[in-house]
Specification:
Layout lengths: L1 H15 L13 H18 L1
Helix pairs in contact: 1-2
Length: 48
């Protein structure tokens, strides 16, 4: 159940949240860093 929830959340994130892959992580704002960390957390948990 946990894995399916994170997969659903990951697909939602792909459609709604901005993509930050082409930006330098050192020049991101705190909010953008938080979004990047959240997306990474959801992605890792959906793969397990």
């Amino acid at each position: 159940m946990k894995k399916s929830f994170f997969k659903l959340l990951n697909t939602f994130n792909k459609k709604v949240l901005p993509k930050l892959s082409n930006k330098d992580p050192n020049h991101l704002t705190k909010i953008e860093k938080g979004i990047l960390a959240y997306r990474y957390f959801v992605l890792v948990n959906s793969l397990d």
